[in-house]
Amino acid sequence: MPDTALLSDLNDRSREVFRRVVESYLATGEPVGSRTLTRDLTEKISAATIRNVMQDLEHLGLLDHPHVSAGRMPTQLGLRLFVDGLMEAGPVSMTDREMINETLGNESGDTGAMLDRVSMALSNLTQGASLVLMPKHEAPVRHIEFVSLAPDRALVVLVFADGRVENRVFNPPPGHTASSMREAANFLNAVAEGRTLSDLRSGISREIEASRQKLDLMAAELIASGLAMWDGDSTDPRLIVRGRANLLAHELADLDRVRTLFDDLERKRDIAEFLELAEHGEGVRIFIGSENKLFSLSGSSLVVSPYMNADRKIVGAVGVIGPTRLNYGRIVPIVDYTAQLVGRMIAGRKG
């Protein structure tokens, strides 16, 4: 992240030229020339003076001029500085608010269907690709069982308090026995009551250490390897992606780079990194170009915000992907408003 103190080092004229260049670029996607700015600036300045200011801003790494064009456009550093220090994000417009409310107001009781509608609404509103990370299943665990399938394969079965059953095949430690599997299951069922899977997983090492003398080494390894599987890729597609065709309508360089973005989205079905990015702080976060480590495609931006359950725990996130010249001032409040609305609806649901 750039130091926004750099803005304070700019005089009023340089700051206004910089702001006008960025705003014009975000609106048109085109480099901005000095003659264009002479018509827009509050202070009447000659084109030659503006060119000198733009050269200074280019020297600071805030502007660049593509190819032989006389116009300037913001660099990634410039966009970051603008978003952090100069952007004015207004409230969600009444039209956008009504569309989001109408989408979420169609209550069906199905969280997945509701979030799919949210994803479509975000994509339509922003003309970008929308991402919605569905809530993690946080119901308390009622029962755990290990089932041996082969010497190198086993099944862990979890029954949740709300009646949901999940299972997954994993590779147990070599030499596991029917006895060690029973011991592992008995141990987990004794400590699992009333605890969610994430609570159980975070505390299992401490539980094993405290019961080391009573718990067989093989059973301890079985517990660790079996539960670790639940940190891996989910068999359920918890990531909803809508509006990929919208990205093709923007100037995202060549098609190969767009395909790379699509491939990345397809691969990250359990997108823990996405949620991790959102968990670094409440509210909207903006990742511009190569700052966005989630996607290998440079030249796109991600605007993302987490949403919380009734216990104020972050359980999912909503976001929008588009070109770096997104209308951040409009999209940021849309994403923020949607995340808050989804959070309230999730908090009001049981299970």
UniProtKB/TrEMBL annotation:
<keyword id="KW-0346">Stress response</keyword>
<dbReference type="InterPro" id="IPR036388">
    <property type="entry name" value="WH-like_DNA-bd_sf"/>
</dbReference>
<dbReference type="InterPro" id="IPR029016">
    <property type="entry name" value="GAF-like_dom_sf"/>
</dbReference>
<keyword id="KW-0678">Repressor</keyword>
<keyword id="KW-0804">Transcription</keyword>
<dbReference type="GO" id="GO:0045892">
    <property type="term" value="P:negative regulation of DNA-templated transcription"/>
</dbReference>
<comment type="function">
    <text>Negative regulator of class I heat shock genes (grpE-dnaK-dnaJ and groELS operons). Prevents heat-shock induction of these operons.</text>
</comment>
<protein>
    <recommendedName>
        <fullName>Heat-inducible transcription repressor HrcA</fullName>
    </recommendedName>
</protein>
<dbReference type="GO" id="GO:0003677">
    <property type="term" value="F:DNA binding"/>
</dbReference>
<dbReference type="Pfam" id="PF01628">
    <property type="entry name" value="HrcA"/>
</dbReference>
<comment type="similarity">
    <text>Belongs to the HrcA family.</text>
</comment>
<dbReference type="InterPro" id="IPR002571">
    <property type="entry name" value="HrcA"/>
</dbReference>
<dbReference type="InterPro" id="IPR036390">
    <property type="entry name" value="WH_DNA-bd_sf"/>
</dbReference>
<dbReference type="InterPro" id="IPR021153">
    <property type="entry name" value="HrcA_C"/>
</dbReference>
<keyword id="KW-0805">Transcription regulation</keyword>
<feature type="domain" description="Heat-inducible transcription repressor HrcA C-terminal">
    <location>
        <begin position="114"/>
        <end position="332"/>
    </location>
</feature>
<dbReference type="InterPro" id="IPR023120">
    <property type="entry name" value="WHTH_transcript_rep_HrcA_IDD"/>
</dbReference>
